[in-house]
Design goal:
With 448 residues, the chain is mainly alpha-helical. It contains 20 helices and no strands. 76% of the residues lie in helices and 0% in strands. The two termini are 12 Å apart.
C-alpha cells in the first residue's frame, strides 16, 4: 500500500474522457509504427540478409516475433486496462520502483527524443518542396511539435481523428507503390545474390536483418497508454494491437517485395531511399514528389501518435504522485478534459532537444533500457497468470507458453545485439535509468 498522501491524491484525481473507439485505436497502432522506417529500411535489411528471399524472410520473422509479443502484452493490457500502459503493467506485476524507472526514461528522454527526431525528419522532407536553412528547419520542427500538441490539448477525440486521417493518407502512396510495383516492376530480382552476401553471410547477416525489421515494427505498444480513454479497453486494446500489427506486417512485406520487383537488389542495397527511387522508376520525377509527400504525412501521423500516447506515461505517474511536480503534470484541463500540462511538458522537452541537436544521441542511449522493460513486460504474463489468477481476463494469449517465449527470445536478441554492437550506448542508457532511482527515493520520502 502506498503512503497516505499518494493514496489520497489517487482517490481524488479526475479521470480522462472515454472517447476513443476501435478504429481510432487501430489507426493509432498503425500510425505510430509506420513512420519513416518503411521508406528507408530496405537497404539495410536486404544488405544484411544477402539475398532478396532472405530479406523478405527477415521481415516475416521480425513480424512473427513482434506479433508474439503483441499477443502476449494484449492479455496483460486487457486484464489491466488503465492509462499508462507499460508503466501500469510493471507497477502491478513487479513493483512501483521498476515502473518508475521505466516511466522516468520514457517521459524524460525517449518520448520527447523520438518526437524531436520525427519533427526534424519531417522538415527535412519539406525541403524537397521549399528551401529552408538549418535554423529555419529547427523553427519549423518546433512549430510542428506545438501544433500537434495544441490539437491534442483541444481534444483527445480530435487527436485520434487526425491520427485516423493521417494513417489512411500515409497508406495511399505505399499502396500505389505496392500495386504498381507488383504489376509493372520488371527487375524481378528475387534470384539475385547481393554483393553484401560475402560480407555478412549466414546466421549473423540474417540476424542483423531481423534486428533491422524489429526496430521498424516498434511503437505498437503505445496504444496501451490510452487504455483509460478507450470506450471498451478490455476488448479494443487486444483487437487494435492484433489487427493493427497484422496490417503493418502485410504492408511491410508487400512493399519490400514490390521494391525488389522494381529495382535490382544491388541498387536497393546501395540506395538510402529505395522507396523514393522505386517511385521515380515507376512515375518519373513526380514519383519523388509523391514519396516526399507520403513521408511527410507518415511522419506527421507518427509524431501525433507518439505525443498522444507518450504523454500518458508522465500523466499516469503524476496522478500516482510518482513524478516531480505531480500536482501540475497530473492535472486535467477543466475546459478541454485533456492532460494539458503533461502535453506541454513533453512538447517543451522535445523542443529543447530539437534546439540542442542531441535527440538522436539521447534516444540511442534510452533504447537499451526501454527494451529491458519491454522484455520484463512480456515475461509479466507468467506473473499475471501465477500471482493474479483472480483478475478477469477477457482475452488470453493463444498457444501459451510458446507465444510469450518467442516474444521474450526476440527481445533478448535485441538486447544482446545492442550490447555487443553499441556497448557504450547501452551502458550510458543504464546509467541514465539509474539516475531515476534517487529521484524516486526523494519523491517517496516527500510523499510520506
Amino acid at each position: 500500500m502506498q503512503a497516505n498522501k499518494t493514496t489520497s491524491n489517487a482517490a481524488n484525481v479526475k479521470a480522462l474522457k472515454k472517447e476513443i473507439g476501435l478504429m481510432e485505436a487501430i489507426t493509432m497502432v498503425v500510425g505510430v509504427v509506420i513512420g519513416s522506417g518503411i521508406f528507408f529500411k530496405a537497404s539495410a535489411v536486404f544488405g544484411n540478409a544477402g539475398t532478396p528471399t532472405l530479406g523478405i524472410l527477415a521481415w516475416i520473422v521480425g513480424g512473427i516475433i513482434t506479433i508474439a509479443s503483441a499477443l502476449t502484452i494484449a492479455e496483460i493490457a486487457a486484464a489491466i486496462p488503465k492509462t499508462g500502459g507499460i508503466f501500469v503493467y510493471l507497477k502491478e506485476l513487479y513493483s512501483e520502483k521498476w515502473a518508475f524507472l521505466f516511466g522516468w526514461v520514457q517521459a524524460v528522454i525517449y518520448v520527447p527524443g523520438v518526437a524531436a527526431a520525427l519533427s526534424i525528419v519531417f522538415v527535412t522532407q519539406a525541403t524537397y518542396f521549399i528551401a529552408l536553412t538549418a535554423v529555419q528547419q529547427k523553427i519549423l520542427a518546433i512549430i510542428m511539435i506545438f501544433f500537434i500538441t495544441l490539437i491534442n490539448i483541444i481534444s483527445t477525440k480530435l487527436g485520434s481523428k487526425v491520427q485516423f486521417v493521417s494513417t489512411i493518407a500515409k497508406l495511399i502512396p505505399i499502396f500505389v507503390i505496392i500495386v504498381f510495383g507488383l504489376l509493372k516492376g520488371e527487375a524481378n530480382s528475387f534470384a539475385a545474390v547481393s554483393s553484401a552476401a560475402s560480407a555478412s553471410t549466414g546466421i549473423a547477416g540474417f540476424g542483423a536483418a531481423i534486428l533491422g525489421t524489429l526496430w521498424a515494427y516498434d511503437g505498437w505498444v503505445g496504444v496501451g497508454n490510452m487504455a483509460g480513454e478507450l470506450k471498451n479497453p478490455k476488448k479494443d486494446i487486444p483487437r487494435s494491437i492484433i489487427i493493427g500489427l497484422a496490417i503493418i506486417i502485410v504492408v511491410y512485406i508487400l512493399i519490400n517485395i514490390a521494391i525488389i520487383n522494381i529495382m535490382p537488389v544491388a541498387d536497393v542495397i546501395a540506395s538510402p531511399k529505395a522507396a523514393s527511387d522505386a517511385a521515380v522508376i515507376l512515375f518519373g520525377n513526380s514519383g519523388a514528389a509523391l514519396i516526399a509527400a507520403g513521408i511527410m504525412i507518415s511522419i506527421f501521423g507518427a509524431l501525433n501518435g507518439y505525443l498522444m500516447t507518450g504523454v500518458r506515461v508522465p500523466f499516469a505517474m503524476a496522478q500516482d504522485n510518482l513524478f516531480p511536480f505531480a500536482k501540475y503534470l497530473g492535472k486535467i484541463s477543466d475546459k478541454f478534459e485533456t492532460p494539458v500540462n503533461a502535453l506541454l511538458f513533453e512538447a517543451v522537452l522535445a523542443s529543447l532537444y530539437v534546439m540542442s541537436g542531441s535527440f538522436e544521441t539521447l534516444t540511442n542511449l534510452a533504447v537499451f533500457a526501454v527494451w529491458i522493460f519491454f522484455v520484463m513486460t512480456v515475461y509479466g504474463i507468467f506473473i499475471l497468470r501465477s500471482k493474479h489468477k483472480d483478475i478477469e481476463r477477457p482475452y488470453k494469449v493463444p498457444l501459451f507458453p510458446i507465444v510469450p517465449m518467442i516474444g521474450i527470445a526476440g527481445g533478448i536478441y535485441i538486447l544482446i545485439s545492442t550490447l555487443i554492437t553499441s556497448t557504450s550506448y547501452a551502458l550510458y542508457g543504464l546509467a541514465i535509468t539509474a539516475i531515476g532511482l534517487p529521484v524516486y527515493l526523494y519523491i517517496k520520502r516527500k510523499n510520506i
